[in-house]
Amino acid sequence: MPKIYKVKLHEIANIKTGLVLSRKRASPMSNFTKKYNTISLKSFNENGFYDHSCLDTFIADEKIKDEYLLKKDDILIRLKEPNIAVCVGKDYGDTIASSLVAIIRTTKNDINPIYLTNYLNSSFAKRQFFKQSSAIPMLNIKTLENLKVILPKKEAQDRIVQIQTLTYKEIDTLKNLIQQKQIYANQIFNNIINQEIKNDQNHTRHHKFSSLESVRYI
């Protein structure tokens, strides 16, 4: 049996556009309202992980169907550039995936959703997105459905995800260290400049005091 399969995305996942919010937005005349969160463009971490700390608020005029609410292992991909894909780590029953994104839900048990997310962010997928021209202003569902996916066996997918996850954690650690070093360097700079200003002010005061003392004894 082959160790690697090539399939089209629609053969291993259901793909649909998120909710068009304007169709469900409550008005002052609405008899029913319900508060939800909606994803924002800041929810898309470049490492492929969904960031739930960056949300917008949405008031709907009816209960939103479950198919538009975030579930564990959902893959969201931005339809506008940059076409970043992220994987949702848990259920968020109060958060709507808007029409800014496509929702991809795997239909096979032998698919690691994080592997598929990383594949969507890889050069293998990007080359297919931009095959027809140098730039595509917006992805469409048809393009995603026909995306050719290189699919190793589940064990290999899991191993790839484990290595990539560890690498991304190391990258985040290094980024945090760089930020701390930058803050430290700025603090040193500010402290030295402030000390020099203080020394100059003290010198000026001392010079004025000395001048006054000299005048007093003339």
TrEMBL record:
Task: Please report the stretch or stretches of sequence annotated as the Type I restriction modification DNA specificity domain.
Answer: 6-180
ATP-binding among keywords: no
* UniProt xrefs under PANTHER family: TYPE I RESTRICTION ENZYME MJAVIII SPECIFICITY SUBUNIT (PTHR30408:SF12), TYPE-1 RESTRICTION ENZYME ECOKI SPECIFICITY PROTEIN (PTHR30408)
Which InterPro entries does the record cross-reference, listed alphabetically?
A: Restrct_endonuc_typeI_TRD, Restrct_endonuc_typeI_TRD_sf, Type-I_RS_S_subunit
Among SUPFAM superfamilies, the record links this protein to: DNA methylase specificity domain
Protein's recorded name: Restriction endonuclease
Q: Which organism is it from?
A: Campylobacter blaseri
Q: Which family does it belong to?
A: Belongs to the type-I restriction system S methylase family.
Among the Pfam families in the record, one is Methylase_S
GO MF entry, a single one: DNA binding
Write the record's keywords in alphabetical order, separated by commas: DNA-binding, Endonuclease, Hydrolase, Nuclease, Restriction system
Q: Does the keyword ATP-binding apply?
A: no
